Amino acid sequence: MGHTEDTLNDIRSQIDARPAPLAAARARLDLVRSSAMAFPGANRTYASGSLPQHTFIHPVGDGDGGLVLDRRFYPRLGPDGGGETPAGVAKELCALLGPAVRKIYANARCGTSKRGPKITFGQPVDNQDPTVDLVVALTRKEGSGLWIPNLETNRWEASDPEGHVVLFTSGGESLKRTRRRVVRLLKAWNKQYNQPGFSSHNLTVWAWEFIKPGMGMAVALHTVLSEAARRVEAGGATRDPAGVSPNVKLLVDRTTAARRLRTAANGLAQALEHDGDLKAVLAALSSVYYRYIDAPGSGGLAATVAAMRRSSPVTTAALGLGGAAAMVRPTRAYGASGTIA
Predict the structure, then answer these.
(1) For the chain, is the Cβ count within 10 Å smaller at the N or the C terminus?
(2) What's the pLDDT tens digit per position in 12-43?
(3) Checking DSSP bridges between strand 62-69 and strand 131-139, what pairing results, if any?
(4) What are the start-end ranges of the E strands in 22-61?
């Protein structure tokens, strides 16, 4: 194992989800799923996203899942029925979940997110209070996947969250372990920016698509960044691997997305090229993980310099830095106050 892999493992120790909040997220999702089965016409529930894929990073956010309804119980609901929109049934489900969850969590509340009920708990664990997002879904008459709500438009959209979990947790144990670690590293890299460029789903699709058996973590991370950069630079699309949803969308303009990916890919390439030289590896990776690594010889100002590189010109006065304050070492732990860029 070289210095690149060792340094990435050090970053992993900073970003991996803490056990207690992660356990709380699992327990809360289990509670909401079991409570949802009391809803009229409930067929089954499922877990989706970071929890079953084991890709949560610190701090733990929302646990995702879904309730699939028996379409025979709701003949008018959805595109394959009478065209009834999802807002009503999502509201009814929320009315059931709120009181049910409050039997265990007295401060729990049920609101809505884009896809269905969102339950907050009001009971932090290690200063983290994981929420639960529960999609209310319908099976489709034709094709695989489910109809899931878009409550922002009050329409139904096709997706396959259950199929995604199967795909993203497939393969041999070594491949799955590498994929999980790379996805977590990609999430941490992406979240360094004020406006992340990619959804967690997008990063996971790329990891599933580009990582091959036998790759080590550092090579796999470089491969994902390099191949994704090549695709975005060429104007190519990232398709839904389940073949149900539309193409995966970028969260920033294509030029910005390509530049971020290429810069990160180049940093990994330089680190791997000089893998036996710790100082060179740290210098290369500090351009990628600038919230976690200070470049050697930076005097502890790598984070501030990174901010100036990645945004419009900023003076030290604007940053609140001057004199001795300019020499204060920035906090490297994930979740430190103030996003750099």
Answers:
(1) N
(2) 999 999 999 999 999 999 999 999 999 999 99
(3) parallel
(4) 42-48
Whole-angstrom distance, CA of residue 26 vs CA of residue 49: 12
Distance of alpha carbon 97 from alpha carbon 109, whole angstroms: 9
Cβ contacts of 195 within 8 Å, gap of 6 or more: 251, 252
Question: Does residue 124 have a cis peptide bond before it, meaning omega lies within 30 degrees of 0?
Answer: no
Number of H helices, E strands in the chain: 11, 7
Structure tokens at 184: 């977590």
| Residues of the chain falling short of pLDDT 50 | 301-303, 305-306, 308-341
Does pTM surpass 0.85? yes
CB within 8 A of 4, min separation 6: which ones? 218, 268, 271, 272, 275, 281, 285
Eight-state DSSP code of residue 238:
B
